[in-house]
Amino acid sequence: MKSYAEMDEMSADILKELGNIGTGNAITSLAQMMGIPLDISSPSLHLAQVQEIYTLLEQSQEVETGILVEIKGEITGMFLFFLNESFTNIVLDEILEKRERNILELDDLERSLLSELGNIMCGSYIRALSALMDMDIDVSVPEICVDMGGAILSVPLARIMSKSADILLIENQFQINHHSFSGRILFFPDPECLEPILMKLGIGK
């Protein structure tokens, strides 16, 4: 399988379930870190052209905190944790102290905390996938970017565009106490990883 477009419905369902398992573990770690309950939505899988991704996510013109992690090993690709401005402030308030802040001007401690949050969440996600598929997977040190959502998205999209005309996006959204402070976990697996993943799960050719 050399492109996302070759996936059948069963393969897509399997990938969504992987996203659900990984995100469930990541959100559990975030909830424990913050000491408050979090809600998670059912995963969605999108196969789209680059320009359609911005429309699907509906946040390209909003200021977001992006925590970007590269995946290495038997699976390669990228994770992107998106936290909107309200969610970013809640995370920092719950773990540090409540104060007025401009997320475009975070100090070193705040950026370090968000980086560690990304490290813990991605580690939880990856450990779940690695155990399920019995594959060796590693992650890079998280990169923090606070910018317009579209600008942050351009990093993983540029990587994938060099390999495929289509973008595969596995998306989960989460909220705090049913409030509208939402975040997203986006998983962009590289096209060449799809066949090994599906073979490990017993449905590849």
TrEMBL record:
UniProt-listed InterPro entries: CheC, CheC-like_sf, CheZ_family_phosphatases
Pfam families from the UniProt entry: CheC (PF04509)
Keywords assigned by UniProt, alphabetized: Chemotaxis, Hydrolase
An example molecular function term from Gene Ontology annotations: hydrolase activity
Keyword Cell cycle appears in the UniProt entry: no
Key word Magnesium present: no
Any GO BP: chemotaxis
Regions that span the bilayer: none
Stored CDD domains: CheC_ClassI (cd17909)
Residue ranges annotated for the CheC-like protein domain, each copy included: 10-46, 110-144
PANTHER family: PROTEIN PHOSPHATASE CHEZ
Protein name: Chemotaxis protein CheC
Organism of this sequence: Emergencia timonensis
